[in-house]
Amino acid sequence: MMASDSLIDRYVGCLLGLACGDALGGAVEFESREMIGARYPAGVRDMVGGGPWDLRPGETTDDTAMALALARACDAEHLDMTAVTEHFLRWYRSDPKDIGTTTRAALALLANGVPWDEAGERVNRQTPGGAAGNGAVMRCAPVALRFRMEPDRLRRASLDTARITHADTRAAWGTVALNQVIVHLLNEGTLDGVVEAATAGIEESLVVAAVTSVPTLTEDDLASGGYVLATLTAALWCLLNQPNAEEAIVTAVGLGRDTDTTGAVTGALVGAAYGVRALPERWLALVEHRAELTDLAGRLLRRGSQTTSNTESA
């Protein structure tokens, strides 16, 4: 059993862990692990700000912004992809500091009236090698919180909310794998069961192969760029090989390159595993959007519980 003693603690921990990992990593995004290690011999352990986006200490990037947008859309009786589109476009039109290339291309199509289920597919076809970046896994945690008790809806919602921008099967099924792990951890599943939870029912063999390789990897084997399966394996490795939430997130950020996303995905995992009380208060005191993320976590828990109750009484 995991260390947290309440479900709401893990729900809040998931979203705030994501934001904390994002804010820590944003300060050193694009730097190599050697550069980070030289500047921060003990790892990036405080909200220092700066980096390529000139962040304030505790300021988050597109990872948290898109997770917030998705969480707001999930806070409804039914997940409506038109609403997801509207929330994403509202953020896109706010002139954000940071937005990924694939996401920008898909949202530009959506802004010009291309249907949600065509925009990502079009970008995928136009991207050499496929649009297999990590821009969907970085934001997908709210879907796990909303559909924790409904595995079929969790899978469908994970796929749909991924392919609106990232239609490559590695990116789409990678979100399913990640959300299945988050659900496993929210339900007090053990770390020994993480690989099995991640790979259950996954229809993309490359995702299965990446996840099942995690127990055999060393830190030197981990890649940390923008490829979805590199992010997924790195985050799972940090979860399984570090003793607590802080060490897992610090290790993830220290891998270098796409540090905000590796940190955010790892943060969502360890927050779901250990709860918000496992996150350092010095991070929580500074991280932006703390109040809204906390409120949305509670709302998504209630939404999922209401759906379950309605299903059971029907």
**Number of H- or I-type helical stretches:** 16
- Separation, N- and C-terminal Cα atoms: 32 Å
Q: Which radius of gyration do the C-alpha atoms yield?
A: 18 Å
Order of secondary-structure elements:
HHHHHHHHHHHHHHHH
What is the count of distinct domains? Answer: 1
Q: Strand content of the residues, in percent?
A: under 5%
Mean pLDDT rating: 95
- Based on secondary structure, the structural category is mainly alpha
CATH class: Mainly Alpha
Number of strands: 0
- What is the CATH architecture assignment? Orthogonal Bundle
The CATH homologous superfamily corresponds to ADP-ribosylation/Crystallin J1
Helix content: 55-70%
Uncertain segments are: 308-314
Major sheet:
none
Would you tell me which CATH topology applies? ADP-ribosylglycohydrolase fold
> In one word, what is the shape?
globular
Structure description:
There is one protein chain. With 314 residues, the chain is mainly α. 62% of the residues lie in helices and 0% in strands. It is built from 16 helices and no strands. Helix 12 (228-241) runs antiparallel to helix 13. Mean pLDDT is 95; it is low at 308-314.
Characteristics:
314 residues; mainly alpha; ADP-ribosylglycohydrolase fold; globular; disordered C terminus
